[in-house]
Amino acid sequence: GERARRRCLELEKKGMPEPCDKVLREMKERDYQDTHRAASPLRPADDAVTVDTTNNTLEESVAEIKRMALEAIDRS
What we know:
It is a single chain. The chain is mainly alpha-helical. Helices cover 62% and strands 0% of the residues. Helix 1 (2-13) packs across helix 2. The protein starts with a helix and ends with a helix. The mean pLDDT is 93.
């Protein structure tokens, strides 16, 4: 997905290009290992809020998170 695409671009800029399918496969393997390990598996908190920033600029992502935080404050 998008994480792998961004990582491929990052590696390319560093002069260490890797095939995107390899990067994606390795990310999926690491994600599986991290979420299925016995000690402290990686999981979102029960009250976590996720934000899809796939097509956002940094500024758009910050604005969305700020909006969500302000809404949460108003509800409390």
